[in-house]
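Example record

Each entry pairs one chain with its bound ligand, zinc ion.
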Amino acid sequence: MTLAIVDQAERAELAAGTGLTPQAVSKILARLIDDGLVEEVGRRQGARGKPATLYRLRSEKAHAIGIHAGRTDIKGVRVDLGGNVLDTIATPMPAQFTPAQLIDGIASTVEKLVSPQSDSTNPEIVGVGVALPGPVDRTTGVVQGFRWWRDPAATPLLDALTHRLGRHTVMDLSINAALELTAWQRGDQMTDTLYALLDRGVGGALWIGGRLHRGAHMSAGEFGHLVIEAGGPECECGRRGCVEAVQQRALAEGDIARAAAAVATGIANALHIVDVPGVVWSGSDLEAHPEAYAAALAAELQRTLAGGAAYTIHRAVPAEVPHEDCPADLVATGAAVMVLESVYGIPARPGESLDQSLTPEPAEITSR
Ligand SMILES: [Zn+2]
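Structure tokens for the complex follow.
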């Protein structure tokens, strides 16, 4: 959504930024203006031709809530229509909590983020995005086999949350939410990318051809479960010697260099298969030792077939936030952005149905 990234733009820039035709951009703009979400803010005279109308996204008109349900706490953010973080909150969770406790925790976190609105703009809350470590089926919203849950049965969490919250709710893996945030921020600058989330574990995801590449079983890009040490430490997934298991063992032993080397080997192995030009990473483990991880990855990529210079590496860091003691969690922010995309998302490439990606249903649209 190009308007979310730039302050204001004219129609031709929006068309170039989204890959849509100017006619399609006009239709979308008309609908957003009808909804009160975009306004005309003036005209700009170019070197030749008629002056172009400038449009601005009214970010203050609609907000979304993002939730990151982790193993030890629930982090929440409230964002405006431009994806800017306005408020943050963290709720601690008991060890080995049940699905019912998780639903209670998410509901109370959402309630706290929704209630304290004293401003006069009275924004609409368009929905809640929930991100979990997995495994979660994004389409059915069924969670099954969390090893940190006491209940091993399949839980229709999305249905339960939608009912409890009474709001439009979307759900996805934490790693995918983090990747969606990067794609949202970069817009058409987003290249094919391997994302690594180092946050009490090793998550991986792929962005290929302008979208998340999920794979047949929603686990594409999960390089944390590539085996790098035959017969190595047991992994949560049931195999031995996975990147994640080796990294977690090294961290427990205080061997940061070994932990970083395990992750670097995993990323290099994954790049040999998918050969994407970009690597983006984030997470608390990375934030604790950024130099060690960067050095290990640079050294490892140097030894790949393409060589280290063939890849761009970017560390995603949390945005400036209202509360210094409660930073804007990247996964929670990504979950909120997922909501904005599900409601107002404009496809990044031409040829996709606009009507499926825009709600509410199109009313009368006048061509401009
Ligand atoms: Zn594993």
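The longest strand covers residues 124-132.
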